[in-house]
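Notes from the 1:1 (GR / supervisor)

We went over the backlog. Supervisor wanted to see one worked example end to end before approving the batch request, so GR pasted a single chain during the call. The sequence is below; no edits were made to it. Supervisor asked that the structure be written out right there so they could see what the output format looks like.
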Amino acid sequence: MRAYVLRRCLLALVQCVLVLIAVFAVGSLLPGDTADVLRGELGTPEQVEALRTQLGLDEPAWTRFWHWLAHLLTGDPGHSLTTGLPVGDDIGRRVGVTLLLGIPALLLVTVLAPVVGTVSGLREGSGLDRALNTAAVVLHAVPEFVFGLLLIASVSLAAGLLPATAVGMDRAAVLAQPSVLVLPVIVLTARQLCDLARQIRAGVAQQRHSPVAEHLRLLGVRERTVVLRHVLPLALGPAAQQYARCVEGLLGGAVLVEAVFGFRGMGEGFVESVQNRDLPQVQTYALLFAGTAIVVNLLGDLVAHRLAPRREVTA
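Structure output shown during the call:
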């Protein structure tokens, strides 16, 4: 396991570097740059070129990349090209808003998915199982932004039960009115809950009829013991990897959910930095998202190895 963890950590480091290079390369290939965005159509070519020199955009791309990377290694991701403020300060203001959405959604997925998946798997083929599977398929098929708009139209505008948007609200205002979190958290939770619950359901249904489980029943072991000590650990092994992908899905979903409901979180900040061609911000956001995804996938693989020891066998 130590060798496996070391290999995965080295691979994670390589992946982070490749992500940074890819993001910088794609950003450099986009038409225009920060100077064009700031000056707009009213700026003369001379003004745009002067601003480009002031921002250091006239330097070679790789030179700018290595300068940014050198600052990053010292803990300083640099300054925004559009506002001139430290990138870390901007992300620090936004991360709290994103966590207000992400943490409740992650808790709901963590609590509800094992319950729904286990109940459905233990009652495979029953009416309850078919109903839960149908609901999961329907929720998974609806795009998150469509689901969000449907909830706004029905729950907020038609019924007037919950706030429709958080436009103009900072983190303190959201905490003072937590009802504004209900709809976006539901949207953010729905797809990931469906994916994880279906994965657990498939694992439970398979392990419930495995030779080991049948043999234990023949020996007189109680069904509850068979399920809790043998069926669930083997079923939750692959689900741990799916759980890691759920965290990735929450990060990706935050971009859409924050745009639909008007939250000024990391998702909106990432979109704005791309629109402004603000490469220091784009690279920092990309590094945070990619780093989080890599870490949670590593943890998911380690948990899967722990719950299903047969996965540790190598050729």
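Supervisor's comment: The two ends are 14 Å apart (CA to CA).
Batch request approved.
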